Structure prediction request, 157 residues.
Amino acid sequence: MSDFRIGIGYDVHQLIKGRKLILGGVNIKYHKGLLGHSDADVLIHSIADALLGAAALGDLGKHFPAIDYNKGISGQELIFKVVDLITSSGFSIVNIDTTIILQNPAISIYVDHMRQNISKYLGIAIDKVSVKATTTDKLGFIGKEEGIAAQAIVMIK
Prediction:
């Protein structure tokens, strides 16, 4: 029997004016974007952390510290590097389930594009990629539109 492993990832970034909002590699039309050393794609970051955790390879901070040569790194570049780490450690990705937690903007029209991107980035079939969204009913910093968070759970073998 294969050695199945599960990993959980979480990321959160502050929303500010003057930045692009990128989620799942998709540029979302909105008047604010996420602040971060990288492109601050919380969805991709949560997936990357879940993959690293499942393979017991540490976290994003270990592999991509917030130093100059990582400044502005795209989620796409980051996830490709994480997938290389996973596959070179002998693992393959089985499936992924994600949730984006935000009050605004509404992102349902972007979800299929996010799933396509993630499928391509991870090298798995799109039917093995789930992207969902929820609000916090205007509660907390997310409800006040001060930030966006994402969670991911992955299975590797």
Notes: Residues 49 and 60 are 6 Å apart (CA to CA). The first helix runs from residue 42 to 54.
